[in-house]
Amino acid sequence: MEFILLDLEWNSTYAPPIQRYFNEIIEIGAVRLDSSLTESGSYTSLVRSRYQSQVCSYVTDLTNISQEDLRREGIPYRTALYGFRDWMAKGAAPAERVVLSWGDGDLRTFWQNNIVLLGGENMLYLGNYADLQAYVRHRCKLPTTQQTGLRAAAELLGISVEEHEIHRAVTDSRLAAEVLRRVYSEEDFADFVKPVTPDFFRRMSFKPRYISRRADAEHLSSPGNPLINGTQLYCICPHCRIPARPLYEWYFGGRSFNTVCCCTRCGREYKAQVTFKRLFDHIEIKHQAKEL
After folding, report:
1. Cα–Cα distances in Å, from 100 out to 7, 173, 214?
2. Domains of the chain, with CATH numbers?
3. How far is it, in rounded angstroms, from Cα 238 to Cα 249?
4. What is the pLDDT of residues 162-195, one digit of tens each?
């Protein structure tokens, strides 16, 4: 198995075709590790902006990348992307490599740039993907709600960050590689690897939402998904394990359908709640009953 540690730097840019701002990539950096986690190659490229004439001052302060750097050394995004793709092709086949980034923000930005700048370039060549931040959180037993930064994780693992130039793509990739070396275990790493399939980026960018109206629920119903209708609005008595009788009509509020129910066996009353959450490929339904 081969590992590609990827890092991007970007600049907030207004793109007329989509009439909004997006994170336009200004630097691509990556390092390749062999199966023993030894570095066997690297890729770095500055990327010239298509729409922005200046790098935002806070980006320059963060990365030391100036507009003059991009004018002098930057290449078009298409050229940089194809160079990265060709560099990857010199290593293992897509099925035998895993691309890692610190959080999935870099991959989302990569995909967004391909859509805005190239009209949706195929990215199946990536092969497989793993979120290194999530894996480190798992290995170090950090809270799932804790968004630990790369440098904070490195310091936690006893890695010196002084030799790594702050917020430059290839040096951040090398720092991420060192973090991976400290935590990697073949036994559980595979649980975090996902194949990059045609719907991979659509799944990654999908935003779950709560269904707020009966009309929404019926509209989102489809074969293979549960029917979202009145039959899902029920309450089970936690004590007797039988359906409780609604005392009022169900109403929507606070992301859930609500009513008060009474168990016909024990007489207990409950505040009943049912939520419908639209996920990428199914609808998640949750029932709750709180005794009054």
Report:
1. 9, 9, 41
2. 2-205 (3.30.420.10), 209-291 (no CATH)
3. 21
4. 766 667 899 999 999 999 999 999 999 999 999 9
